[in-house]
């Protein structure tokens, strides 16, 4: 990724127009446009002003520029969660996630097993049952979720999942978004 492309990306992520960035960095909109299209190279001082207006600095800008974004995560990249209850196997599917407020997991519930009860917290959670069927407990409500069905709820309730089968495992993708 070129410097101009990265600046444009940061500007768009911050919902800022070229005009707003120019005003905040004390530069012209035309100059910002040329920099974003890599038609002009900013001086170090101008680049610092642009980055300050975007809420970052030279160090972070260039360290992120050099790091290639990881797109595909293999089975070997998964991180086991060791404090799961007996009969529950959980693995984080990503080693890092940007933004850092999403946590996707692969969960395998042995017959009759359940996850720990989670207290209400901020965010939302969703899941997709790959194999088997589960019971989703939200406060005092119980929902049956079968193979190839999805669940989605606000995490502001006491919640957990249980494999209702006494003979088959249940496998699901569970994503927490904070």
TrEMBL record:
A molecular function GO annotation: DNA binding
Q: SMART domains recorded for this chain?
A: HTH_XRE
Q: Which InterPro entries match?
A: Cro/C1-type_HTH (IPR001387), Cupin_2 (IPR013096), Lambda_DNA-bd_dom_sf (IPR010982), RmlC-like_jellyroll (IPR014710), RmlC_Cupin_sf (IPR011051), TransReg_Diox_bact_type (IPR050807)
Among Pfam families, the record links this protein to: Cupin_2, HTH_3
GO CC, any one term: cytosol
- Name the PROSITE patterns on file: HTH_CROC1
Sorted UniProt keywords: DNA-binding
* Domain HTH cro/C1-type residue range list: 7-61
Q: What is this protein called?
A: Transcriptional regulator, XRE family
Q: Which organism is it from?
A: Petrotoga mobilis (strain DSM 10674 / SJ95)
């Amino acid at each position: 990724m070129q410097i101009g492309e990265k600046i444009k990306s940061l500007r768009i992520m911050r919902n800022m127009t070229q005009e707003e960035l120019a005003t905040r960095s004390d530069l012209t909109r035309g100059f910002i446009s040329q920099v974003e299209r890599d038609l002009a190279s900013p001086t170090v001082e101008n680049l610092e002003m642009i980055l300050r207006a975007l809420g970052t600095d030279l160090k972070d800008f260039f360290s992120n520029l050099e790091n290639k974004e990881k797109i595909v995560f293999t089975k070997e990249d998964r991180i086991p969660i060791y404090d799961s209850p007996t009969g529950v196997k959980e693995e984080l599917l990503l080693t890092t996630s940007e933004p850092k407020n999403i946590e996707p997991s692969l969960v395998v519930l042995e017959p009759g097993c359940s996850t720990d009860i989670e207290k209400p917290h901020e965010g939302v959670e969703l899941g997709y049952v790959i194999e088997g069927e589960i019971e989703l407990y939200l406060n005092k409500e119980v929902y049956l979720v079968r193979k190839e069905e999805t669940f989605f709820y606000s995490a502001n309730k006491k919640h957990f999942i249980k494999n209702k089968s006494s003979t088959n495992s249940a496998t699901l993708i569970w994503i927490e978004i904070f």
